[in-house]
Specification:
The protein has helices spanning 26-35, 66-69, 74-94, and strands spanning 8-12, 17-19, 44-53, 56-64. It is α+β, with helices and mostly antiparallel strands and 116 residues long. A four-stranded antiparallel β-sheet has the order 2-1-3-4.
Length: 116
């Protein structure tokens, strides 16, 4: 169902719990695990993938809180995750990030100095 090949599905909490993405019920199991954790800041379901975005390679990490996924089907949750990865890719491809590419010699210039 997801459009990207996700490398990690994790319940992000004090002691993170990874789930095997080869299991078709992994997302359901992760949601049930998340429901059993008392609500705390930074708790949610995290997924990771590596994708290209223009000339860049992006390590996309999406964190969904319980209120983002409650009442949704697994297909709707994967679509939400895919849309967030798409948004991150588009933002990076447009250059809407605070990233400065390395100079031609592979070293970053001192802060505040031009690349070339």
């Amino acid at each position: 169902m997801p459009r990207y090949h996700y490398e990690r599905l994790r319940v992000a909490c004090l002691h993170p719990i990874d789930f095997d993405l080869s299991d078709p019920l992994a997302l359901r199991k992760a949601v049930e695990c998340l429901k059993s954790i008392p609500d705390a800041k930074g708790t949610g379901i995290s997924v990771e993938t590596s994708v290209t975005a223009g000339p860049y390679k992006l390590r996309a990490r999406v964190l969904l809180k319980l209120h983002d996924i409650i009442g949704k089907t697994p297909r709707e949750v994967w679509e939400l995750i895919d849309r967030r990865v798409d948004a991150d890719r588009a933002s990076l491809a447009k250059g809407n990030v605070g990233y400065t590419p390395a100079s031609p010699n592979g070293k970053r210039p001192p802060h505040g100095q031009p690349l070339i």
